[in-house]
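Batch job 17 of 40 flagged for manual review because the log was empty.
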Amino acid sequence: MRISIIGAGHMGSAIAQELIGHEEVTVVRVCDAHTRSLQSLHNRLDSPKLRSFQVDARDERTMASILEDSNCVIGATDPALYPKLARIALTSGSHFCDLGSSAPVLEKEYHLSERAAEKSLWVVPNCGLDPGLSNMLCLHAIRQFDEPIRAHLRVGDVPLEPEPPFNFRISWSAEKLVDDYTLPVEYMEEGQKLSTSPLTGIEDISFSEPFSDMEAFHTAGLLKTICEVAGPSLKTIDHKSIRWPGHARNMQFLLALGFAEQKIIDVQSHLTYRDVLTRRLKQRLGGAYEDAVLVRISVFGHKDGQDAELVYEMIQQFDRERNMTAIRRCTSITAATIALQLASGAVPGGGVCPPEQIVPLRTFFDNVRAAGLPVETRWTEPR
């Protein structure tokens, strides 16, 4: 089984490390434009399975020759490149999956549906943590009910040592963070599709120490894909991000000043306020840090004639033995598990679809737990 990864950064290198540990994987190709990233990858991973290529992902001809005999290609680079990379993968005869992007990028990927279906190949967006793992767990929980009624997704990556005023660090993409904090939030309540502003609906949420006092609030998410296959009995579903207390209020203040606007600052600059914001977020909140991923998926409904609640909960902390952040570990296991399913031929058909709609849920659930994600399950009396 040959799998290629586009991007040798934090996420791409973690996915490579995860894939190399699987016996059925014979070759892991990693492509990146930067020599330093590839050298760092080889310094961390000493394996005969690893192949690296210094290439710009926008170089379609070179990329096509490298990906030619791949069983699956994973996009772990600039999300704006995912549609192009998906097209190259299809031309090369490979499945494609990525770590998630904004709605405009997804729309471009969905334009490949007919081509993918003709080739019996899959383009599978949103295979990261959230959406990705969170949506897969949610739909798996929904499937345990005879009649699911309500589903609530609460997910977040938080620093182990929060520093005011934001009590937050950038774990993946500043651009995606700004999207999550500015795009409209869609949810469903009592059968009605509603929309609200991000950074609202702040609620207290508690996990075991040291995460007993956290907050969760609305952020832009992709719940539509769950609703499409959950069935008509599901009347309520929402998604909120988990952070340390005070984060939402401080971000509300910052964004209210207009720093997320796509307006040019002045006639002597091509930069927008949003460009400046994302750059400063990376500079001030980026860098290495120890973190934890917190997940709680709650589904209420009827099972065997009784009211019931099923909760999936996970606390994944920074792995000091592997020197790997929690979000890298969660993302890499999720993406690798989905890529392996695609590459093995376990997902028949073809087209463009999120993973929760096509990847076998039971197999995915069992495999991510076997890979080390500590997802706990409990049935409780409904509140």
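Reviewer: the log was empty due to a logging misconfiguration, but the result itself is present. The mean pLDDT is 93. Unflagging and moving on to job 18.
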